[in-house]
Amino acid sequence: MLTMSFRTIIALCFALAIGGLKGPIPSQRLSRRCKNILPANKLDGITIESDLKPLWNNILVKVKEVASSTAGGLFIPDNAKERPTEGLVVAAGPGRVHPETGVQLDLAVKEGDNVIYGKYDGTELKYNDLNHQLIKDDDVLLTYSGPNPTIENVVCVKDQVLVELPRKEEATSSGIIVSNPTNAKEKRPDYGVVIKVGPGRQAGNGVYMPIRVAPGDNVRFRDFAGSEVKIGNKDYLVIRSYDILAKW
């Protein structure tokens, strides 16, 4: 029985791939071994003979599964589940190149990071039969460590600023003041308190531009700017620093 070293198998596979192998294949087992060596994945049901590799500042996120029941055990039907906006970074591009200076800018995330991104950002796809999302690193709102985001473990990226929104106080008919989260049907507050800030956005030369606000600042920002997130039982806004109009 013919036996071959692993190095020989690799050499024969490479020669076969570039058309340099002449004559019959010495063993029928070679093709099977080549298939085992070369990675195969599924992209939207189609087999691809390599890993999916994001380009530029694109990142591939494995989407976090949505809970199928409430904390009280009630079943949530599929059509009632909100689209998930959290996931795990499984692959990332090298970063965007600035179009004027040619400087390659840093990527905001890395493989293994848990991320929260915008509800309507990116492109949905099935990768190895699991839900994934291809998004830009600019779409990332927050990163976090651990199984779930908390106010202690979330981190702002680039020039993102995490702002705690005020809770609306409503008076009952008996005159008792009840504090409730902001009603989504009403106008969202345009002010809040800065909780965390990112490292800043990079200029064309690669230098990080400082953010003009700090944790503890009260800020006023543009109407409808940013993305709302709920961490724990509190409402927050993740907003670009340039959308903040004033502070005190």
Describe this structure in words.
- It is a single chain.
- Helix 1 packs across helix 2 (29-37).
- The protein is mainly beta and 248 residues long.
- The chain contains 2 helices and 17 strands.
- The protein has 3 domains: 6-38, no CATH class; 41-149, GroES chaperonin (10 Kd Chaperonin, Protein Cpn10, Chain O, Roll); 156-248, 10 Kd Chaperonin, Protein Cpn10, Chain O.
- It is globular.
- A 7-stranded antiparallel β-sheet has the order 6-7-3-4-5-8-9, with no helix packed on it. The protein has a 6-stranded antiparallel β-sheet with strand order 15-16-10-13-14-17, with no helix packed on it. The protein has a two-stranded antiparallel sheet with strand order 1-2.
Q: Care to count the β-strands?
A: 17
| Overall pLDDT score | 81
Radius of gyration: 25 Å
Report the total helices: 2
Distance between the termini: 82 Å
What is the level 1 CATH name of the largest domain?
Answer: Mainly Beta
Q: What structural class do the secondary elements suggest?
A: mainly beta
SSE string, helices as H and strands as E: HHEEEEEEEEEEEEEEEEE
Helix content: under 10%
The CATH topology label of the largest domain is: 10 Kd Chaperonin, Protein Cpn10, Chain O
User: Could you give a short account of the major beta sheet?
Assistant: 7 strands, antiparallel
Cross-sheet strand order for the largest sheet: 6-7-3-4-5-8-9
Total domains = 3
Q: Per CATH, which architecture of the largest domain?
A: Roll
The fourth-level CATH homologous superfamily of the largest domain is: GroES chaperonin
Report the β-strand fraction as a percent range: 25-35%
Globally, the shape reads: globular
Poorly predicted spans: 72-81, 170-180
